[in-house]
Design a protein that fits this description.
The protein is about 40% helix and about 15% strand. The protein is of the alpha/beta class. Strands 1, 2, 3, 4, 5, 6, 7, 8 and 9 form a 9-stranded mixed sheet that branches. Helix 1 links the parallel strand 1 and strand 2.
């Protein structure tokens, strides 16, 4: 078996057929599609069975609800492909994507490709995992779904159950198992924004989990990555009473946007505690809309 495509399924009646059809249209020989019904309470279980009856490449797993990580792990447990990829069941892939990626992957252990209107990548191969992490700003796109993985990487790695932003915890572990990572401009993953999804509804404790996942990743940190973490820390401080856990660092200003430069200067001068207090006060006065704060 060449490629296993794992699709967790939960409350996606409206989009499941589009997702599965887009995968089955991929011109990849020896491909299996694993639909993991994660105890969905709607018509999804029957839809999964219908797809399994209609196409011999489709395998169906029905299980009690355990969350996204548990569903992906259930798919990994039965996957037989030399390579693994994931797709969320409200998303879809452009025609010809998987065939192009399988031709491109070569000796790479992980191949990452672009997401429509969100992420564009150049052709590059990395043997230094830290270089990949920092130069592509991979910490901002740790998504499980826009990558193809050699299956051996998952021999000792599974997605953490009960964790929000589980991809941030998992990708660094997979990278440590890998020797070569490649990026490509070939293929397109189409992501569907869900305003009711876990990411969109993330609160302070969820963002605290995100920050901890980054801090525990063991990946190298440069000034740009540090400022990315500082923004998350500021959001956590704003939405909770938790004191900052991000270590203080002197940040160089070169290459930073104006907004990041202001934050870096204040952090360099006064530390994170005072920085968080300043911005919390400003936000209280202006009453801005909540955001993930990308600047």
């Amino acid at each position: 078996m060449k490629l296993s495509v794992i699709i967790p399924v939960y409350r996606v009646e409206a989009t499941l057929d589009r997702c599965v059809a887009s995968v089955l249209r991929q011109q990849v020989e020896e491909m299996e599609v694993i639909l993991v019904d994660d105890g969905s309470p709607d018509r999804c279980p029957q839809k999964c069975d219908d797809w399994g009856m209609a196409d011999s490449r489709v395998k169906v797993v029905h299980k009690a609800n355990g969350g996204l990580s548990d569903a992906r792990n259930a798919g990994l447990d039965i996957a037989r492909g030399d390579y693994i990829t994931f797709i969320d069941s409200d998303d879809w892939v452009e025609a010809g994507t998987y065939a192009a990626l399988m031709d491109r992957i070569g000796d790479s252990d992980i191949l990452e490709y672009g997401i429509a209107d969100l992420l564009r990548l150049d052709e590059h191969t990395y043997t230094d995992i830290g270089e990949y992490w920092l130069s592509t700003h991979a910490y901002t796109h740790t998504y499980a779904c826009n990558k193809i993985y050699r299956r051996r990487l998952f021999h000792h790695v599974r997605f953490p159950r009960g964790r929000i932003f589980e991809d941030v915890s998992t990708l660094p572990r997979l990278l440590r198992e890998a020797t070569t990572v490649a990026t490509t401009s070939l293929g397109t993953y189409h992501y569907t924004w869900n305003p009711d999804g876990i990411t969109a509804q993330a609160d302070g404790p969820a963002l605290a989990q995100l920050l901890q996942a980054h801090l525990q990743s063991g990946m190298p940190v440069d000034d740009r990555y540090y400022m990315y973490l500082l923004n998350i820390q500021m959001d956590v401080c704003e939405r909770t009473s938790h004191p900052p856990v991000l270590p203080r660092r002197h940040v160089r200003l070169k290459g930073l946007t104006s907004a990041l430069r202001v934050k870096a200067i204040l952090q360099n001068l006064f530390g994170i505690n005072i920085l968080c207090r300043i911005f919390k006060t400003v936000h209280y006065i202006k009453k801005p809309a909540r955001s993930s704060r990308s600047s």
